[in-house]
Amino acid sequence: MSAGFVFTVYTDRDGIISRVWISGCVLSYIAVIFNITIFIVLCRKNLASPATVLMQGLAIADASTAFCAYGFEVLYQLKYLDNSFDESNTKLTMAYPYCALYVHVSLCVDIFVMISTMLTLSLGIQKCLALKFPLWTRSYLTKRHSIICCVVCLFVSCAIHIPRNFTIVEEASRADPNYCITTYRNDRLLTYSSFHFIFIKTMLLSGFTFAMLFCTIHIVYRICTYKLRDQHKSRRVQERKSAVLVIMIMVIFLITAIPEIYLYILFCTEITPDDKFYSLWNVENHKFAMTTIVSNKLKFLQQLERHTLTRWEIVLFVNEGRKMFSLIGCMTNSVIYFIMSEKLRNEFKLLCHRQRSKRNLNEKRHDHSGK
Predict the structure, then answer these.
(1) Each residue of 243-273: b (16+ CB within 10 Å) or e?
(2) What digits encode the pLDDT tens for the residues 217-266?
(3) Which run of H or E residues covers position 2?
(4) Hey, what long-range contacts does 74-83 have (CB within 8 A, 24 or more apart)?
């Protein structure tokens, strides 16, 4: 283990970022409620299918992403301590063990985002197979295969991301218990987490995005062909709605993923594993570090700096904007499910009606027992 630096959370002087954190906390709870509701409704027997299993996995991944992004912000707001040394920005810190909770939960966001990405791609591939080989899909593609797919996505994402959690060590400062010191375990883990991980994730995200783009184009082409139009009317309408649902899910992902991949590619051209201090800071704050470096290359950000904001404010706002954009994407999937799936809406109504009937029956029994 090597010497490190004081754990720090960066914000602005005007408190705008702090208000964004609180807003993100509210939105994260809404996203969690939406996605858990979707998961419960998809458990109904009338909706059981290989695709719904993947959608359930996607709902859990989105709920976990939203919660890890801002879910603990209520606790963090109570534990933040001022750690400013100049007037250019505001630095906050937290005592141990809250600093460790902050770091490791923040790193878990990337785990669930990767799972969500792979499950979204799996949905697209499943729909492509269903349109191309409908009989084979109904006969051989089962819910068991979808469960295996979800488990594989979980293990692959954990295998890539979990080493970063083992790299960083947070411990209380001996000089002042209000401060938390960030260190690392060994050089190999640090090199992987700060250098190789970035390249691996960039390649995987790029490959997944191109595959998803191909699936989207293929599905659009298939639903416009005569083979689909020649099917029975009810079957045709069902297939078309299902295909449009998957297309919208993938398009929402592509909108949020393509800018992220562009930033990763730019970041890969700048990082170096030689500086241990910067590498450790990069592991703990790799999204922030990415935004800081890339902001020097984007011309429109340079123009913005000349007219309105400082470079530090631009980095802060862009970094939080990326997190909020991802959070909105987590909420959007559940909204799309409700809008596009009539069967899901009907099952949700039946579920609510059943719970209401049970509550009324319990009240009647309670009244009779009281008499």
Answers:
(1) bebbbbbbebbeebbeebbebbebbeeebee
(2) 888 887 777 555 445 555 566 667 777 778 888 888 888 777 778 778 87
(3) strand 2-6
(4) 74/25, 75/101, 76/9, 76/21, 76/102, 77/18, 77/21, 77/22, 80/9, 81/178, 83/6, 83/8, 83/179
Burial-class residue 165 by CB neighbours within 10 Å (0-12, 13-18, 19+).
Answer: middle
Question: Tokens representing 235?
Answer: 């079957």
pTM of the model: 0.86
The CA distance from 22 to 133, in Å, is 48
Domains in the chain (CATH in brackets) are 2-356 (1.20.1070.10)
Burial state string for 34-55 with b = 16 or more CB within 10 A and e = fewer than 16: bbebbbebbebeebebbbbbbb
Name the 3-class secondary structure at 84.
coil
Would you say 93 and 180 are in contact if contact means Cβ atoms under 8 Å apart? Answer: yes
Residue 327, class by beta-carbon neighbours within 10 Å (0-12 exposed, 13-18 middle, 19+ buried)? buried
Measure the CA–CA gap between 135 and 138, rounded to whole angstroms. Answer: 5
**Residue owning tokens 């492509």:** 128
Distance in Å from the first CA to the final CA of the chain: 71
3-state secondary structure of 122: helix
How many Å apart are CA 294 and CA 263, to the nearest integer? 7
Q: Which residues contact 50 (CB under 8 A, 6 or more apart)?
A: 126, 141, 142, 143, 145, 146
Question: Interior CA angle at 15 toward 13 and 20, to 5°?
Answer: 135
